[in-house]
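INTERNAL AUDIT FORM
Audit reference: QA-55
Scope: verify that the stored structure record matches its stored sequence.
Auditor: D.O.
Record contents follow.
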Amino acid sequence: MRSGFEITYLQFITLHFTTRLHNTSIDMTTNQLLILAIGLITVAMFLWGRWRHDMVAFGSLLVCVLAGLVPARVAFAGFGHPAVITVACVLVLSRGLLASGAVDALTRTVLPAKAGMGLSMASLIGLGAVLSSFMNNVGAMAMLMPVAMQLAKRFELAPGRVLMPLAFGTILGGMTTLIGTPPNLIVSGFRAQTGAGSFAMFDFAPVGLAVAGTGIIFVIMLGWRLVPSRQQAGIEGFESGAYITEAHVPENCKAVGMNLGEIGAILDDHDSQVIGMVHNGIRLTAPQPRHTVRAGDILIIEAETEALSEVLSVLGLKLEESIEGPGNVESDDREIGNGAENVARRQVNSETTNANSDRKKDKNIRSGDIALVELAVLPGSPLVGRSTSDILLRTRYGLNLLALSRQGQLSLKRLRSIDLQSGDLLLLQGPPEAISEFAADYGCVPLAERELRIPNRRKALEAGIIMALAVGGAAFGLLPATISFAIGVLASMVLRTVPPRTVYEAIDWPVIVLLGALIPVAGAMESTGTADLIAHFMLYNLAQGHAVAGLIMILVVSMFFSDLMNNAATAAVMCPIAIGTSTALNVSADPFLMAVAIGASCAFLTPVGHQNNTLILGPGGFRFGDYWKLGLPLEILVVAVSVPLLLVVWPL
């Protein structure tokens, strides 16, 4: 039913458009009719949503090539466009900030621990907006979602009442800088094609900051109350219950000198607890709260996988099993046992020492080339009744057992000494190939690859410096943005803030394909004169020849399209029309291009308009029609604030 309505509506628009063109005495060539039909069908396919946006865009490009509208020799030139390269590089640098723990450290520093609801929400949304100004806003949203859920729980709010304001805040923050969101880069690229040069890093800030600031204040003061109070629709991902893990207390970390009672109070905030410790090699199964923690101790912690990273960061702990050193994993502590068992363990230690020495010679296994995978022990597995020490997990496979989950049961043994059972969940760290081999050998099934960000201060500092230098190089005109960020990516790979193995995983390839495919299509709209025809039609029939009305029209149409299809696609479609409109009016194209950038970044009415809106759909328990209740007033506010500022900052 929906597709039939859309096709009928498309036919009506096409007929109406061509009729008005005929009435205004505008003759269209065959090429113009072809590119117009392809453009309308492409937009309709975007709105229909049956196929992915990158598939539709790629199909549109190929049809243009077959129709002779785009020369075959330049069909894929869009993939080398500066905007496309810059988007890919920014995604990689964002991954470095996340993986190294740099963003987590910033979150702990900025967000108040025990503030009231208003200040806490303002800090969270403000941090999200700032982060999304310099990194991928989807990454910023994903990183702050657990914090938002904790905030909602603390103040007994429905999760959606925190998640939706955060999602909208990160979207607003992206419009303030050149690299904040793909539409800004696309708009800058189209401006360069007009001969006026690209927009600079902070050219978007005068209008973007005012719009984002006003929108965020509205959301914090009033808007969050407009969000429907829904219960969480379902649990995202696989819920495996609490894990038991061992954390080493290094020198000069925050936990040194604290007693277990103080540490327990901190862990309570993260739904975690200390259930035991190892002191001087002796396992304490029920340590007293007043027991003081010393460097070299090992804390046995029960925590969810999502909370592990935060627990480690807050106290400055390190996962015991991931610490390098001969015999670390399969060495034994001074626990009570029979003589034969101790002899066997000493043999294991000797073998492990030799194996670790051999592994140090293997240059193919690097600290960055590791994965974190959750495995379930199947019934009948050879692991049942055996411990990881028995099977020489690290010796034979080079893997670390970081944590173990056994629903409702706690063990008094060390991780390496626990006899495994069917149904146990193992959190293993190591090379992906080794994990696959282990799973095949021992009858385990992989459930999920976890994104556990183990804090690394040095890597976090390096990632932050690389991003700052890349932004600075582009902002001060020392290097073109593409080159500056490409150098940043290379530095990230060399310093391994982004492991080379994960560089290509960090790139959102559907977005890259969409941009690379639509840029030549947009070029065909311009080269055939179709963009100018559309601009004249909109100008004389909708804006009635008034420049300000034309500016408002471009902004509103961009917002409408962005609510229904990808924001990058919206920018690519609307930029030629904006340039054509300004040319027909004989005014500067800058305010019209900025209107496209703002409109394409303001997708607040639907869950499909922006990935951040989609991310919160399940956790917030939202329905499709819930977004407009906050989104519509916010979009009206954006228009009211941005239009006067555009006329002042970017005069016609």
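Auditor finding: record pair retrieved intact. The beta strands are 243-248, 273-279, 282-284, 298-303, 318-319, 371-377, 400-405, 425-430, 444-449.
Action required: none
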